[in-house]
Amino acid sequence: MNILGLSGLLIDGAACLVQDGRVVAAVEEERPLRFKQASMRLSGGLPNGAIDLCFRQAGIAWKDIDHVAYFFRPWKEFLRMVGFRWAKAYWAPHVAGYYMLYHLDLLKGHLAVPHLVRYRCNGRVPRVHFWSHHLTHAASAFYVSPFEQAAILVMDAVGERDCTSFFLGQGTSIRRIRSWAFPHSWGFVYAMVTQYLGFRPNRDEYKVMGLAAFGKPTYVRQLEQVIGLKPDGSLKLDWSYFDPAFRGPLYFNKKFYDTFGRARAPEEPLTERQQDIAASLQELLERSALRLAGELYRLTGAAALCIAGGVGLNSSMNGRLAAEGPFRAIYVPPAPHDAGSAMGAALLTQYLLLKQRRQTVLDSALLGPEFSNEAIKTALDASKVRYEERSDIAADVAELLAQGRVVGWFQGRMEWGPRALGSRSILANPTKPEMQTVVNRAVKNRESFRPFAPSVLAERAGDYFLLTQPSPFMQLVSPVRPERRKDIPAVVHVDGTARVQTVTRESNPRYHRLIRLFAEKSGVPVVLNTSFNVDGEPIVCTPQDALRCFFSTGIDALAIGDYLVEKSWCQCKMQSAN
Ligand SMILES: [Fe+2]
Question: N or C terminus of the chain: which is more exposed, having fewer CB within 10 Å?
Fold first, then answer.
C-alpha cells in the first residue's frame, strides 16, 4: 500500500511517501528545485522533484501509488476568503476584486491536482483525498509522536479559514476542539511585523526571533492593543490599526505608524527601536502560546502536547512551552510548517480512511535521498577535484574541527524540515569565540545578530543546557548553563540561550561518533552546526550541490561520504598547474 502525501501550493511544497504504514521518504521541493521554500506551483502544479526523490528512495513509480493525500480543502478556503473580501469591498472595490481573482486562481491550482495526478499515472489512477488543512498539521505532529494521547496546538497564518486550532489526539482519532478564524492569526501578525521590520514575510520570521534577544520588550503594551490578546491566549485584531480595505503588503494604517514609527526598508541598518519591537512581538507570542497551552490543558487534561503549524518553527516559543507550560512533555516534528502537511495528509489516509494501526514514531528526521560512495566518487571524479578515501572520516573531521577549520559534512540521508541535523551541515569548533565571525565571513554572509546552533551528545546535554526534554530536531531554545557559556561561546546567543540539537547514537551514528571524538580532543561534547548552504539558497541535496557550495565559499574541508576534500589541496594543484 503506497500513499503519497502532497503539500504547498504557494510555499513549502513537499512530498511524503507512506508505504505499508511506514513513512519511508519525505522531501521538500526546494531541495531538488534549488529555490528556497519552492511551491508546488513553481514545479508545474505538483512537487515533481520531491515526488521523484521519494519514488527513487522507495524504488517505485507513479503506477505503484494507491492513494494521493492532499493537504487542503480548497472550496472551504475559497468561500471563506471571498466572503471576507466581499465584506471589505465597500472600502475599495478594486482591492476586493483583485483578492477575489487571486483566490479564484488559487482554487484553480488546488483543483488541478487530481487531473495532474491522472496525467502522470497514465493508466491506473489512484484515489485523491482532500484533507482539512489544520487537521493535516495536527496529524503531522501527533501521529508520529510517541504519545498515545496528546493535546495538539496548531498555529499558522491561515489554512482554509483557521488560524489557531485545538485538537485532542487519541490512538488514531484526532478530534477538533476549537478553532479561531482568519484574520485573527499569529502567523499573519508575525509575518506583517516581520515585513514592517524590513524582512521578508512568511520567510524571515526566524530572523525576527533572533533579533528579539537584542531588544527590550518596551512596546508590549502598544502591540498588545493592536493584536488584542485575550485571557485564553487567542487574538482579536483591533481594526483601527489596519487599512479598512485590508490591502497588502503591509495592511497597517497611519495610526499604526504614528504609534510605532515608519517601516524599515530592507537595506537600512537596524535600530534599537526595531530591536525593541521584535522583542515585544516575541514576548507577546510566547505569552499567548503559554495561555493557549493552559487553556488546551484545561480542556483536554492531556499530559503531552504536540505543536504544529508554521508558528511551530518558533523555537523560542517552543522552549518556553517546554519549560513553563503545563504539559509534562511536548513534541514538535521536524517539519511543523506546511511542508509537514504532506506527511499529515498521508497518515490521515492511512489511519482514518484505511483504518490501519499506528506504528510510526518519528525520532529521526533523516527521510530524504542518500547517495552511495560510488555515486559520490563519480561526482568527485567528474569535478576533477583531488580527494582521499578515509577509513574513519569522523575521526578526520574531529581533528580538523579541533584545529579550528570549517568543515562541510555531507553524510547519509538528507534531513526532512528546515534544520540541518548532521547530514547536510557545516560544522565548526564552538569553543573558539571567533568561529561565529569566521563561519559568517567564510560561508553565510548573514546578519551578525543571528546565532549559530549547537549539536550536543544527548547523554551530555544536561551538562551544558537547561533542557527539560530531548530536542532531536532543533526545535527548542534553551538557556545555556551559566557556568558553561564560556566553554562554547560561538553557539551562545546574546541572551544566554541556544537552539539545541540533541544527538543520539541510534538516530545518527556517524554524527554522534564525530561529536564524541571531538569531545575527546576538546573536552566539549558540542559542535557548531549550521545548514550546508549559502544565504538565500536551500540546503544542499546532491553531491554536486555540495561541491558547488564548497568551492564557492570559504569552507576549508568537505567530508562527503567516506571521502575527504581539503581546499588547501585544490589550491596546491591549481598553483602547480599554473
Ligand atoms: Fe499551514
Answer: C
From the CA of 164, how far away is ligand 1's center (Å)?
A: 10
CA of 183 to the centre of ligand 1 (A): 14
CA of 134 to the centre of ligand 1 (A): 7
- C-alpha cell read off for 153: 496546538
Q: Kindly give the distance from the C-alpha atom of residue 73 to the centroid of ligand 1, in angstroms, as a whole number.
A: 12
Helix pair 272-300, 186-196: axis angle to 10 deg: 170
Contact between 292 and 234 under an 8 Å Cβ cutoff? The reply is yes
Amino acid at 394: A
Helix 205-212, helix 272-300: angle, nearest 10: 100
Q: How many Å apart are CA 469 and CA 242, to the nearest integer?
A: 40
Task: For residue 281, give the amino acid letter.
Answer: L
Listed in sequence order, the residues at least 6 apart from 312 whose beta carbon sits closer than 8 Å to its beta carbon are: 141, 154, 155, 156, 318, 332, 333, 336, 337, 475
Dist. CA 63 → ligand 1 center (Å): 29
DSSP string, 488-539: SGGG--TTSEEEEEEE-TTT-HHHHHHHHHHHHHHS--EEEEEESS-TTSPP
The dihedrals phi and psi of 528, each to the nearest 5 degrees, come to -80, 125
Tally of CB atoms within 10 A around 58: 15
Instruction: List all residues 6 or more positions away from 59 whose beta carbon is below 8 Å from its beta carbon.
Output: none
How far does residue 119's CA lie from ligand 1's centre (Å)? 27
The one-character DSSP state at 13 is -
Q: How far is the CA of 309 from the centre of ligand 1 (A)?
A: 5
Compute mean pLDDT per 10 residues along the chain, 578 residues long, and list them: 96 96 96 96 95 97 96 92 87 89 94 94 88 98 97 94 96 96 94 95 93 96 97 96 87 95 94 97 98 98 97 97 96 98 98 90 95 97 96 98 97 97 98 93 80 96 96 97 97 96 97 98 97 94 97 96 92 50
Backbone angles phi, psi at 268, to 5 degrees: -75, 145
DSSP readout, 296-330?
Answer: HHHHH--SEEEEESGGGG-HHHHHHHHHHSS-SEE
E strand or H helix at 571: helix 567-577
SS3 75: helix
Q: Distance (Å, rounded) from C-alpha 471 to C-alpha 491?
A: 16
CA distance 175 to 395: 49
Q: How far apart are CA 142 and CA 152, in angstroms?
A: 7
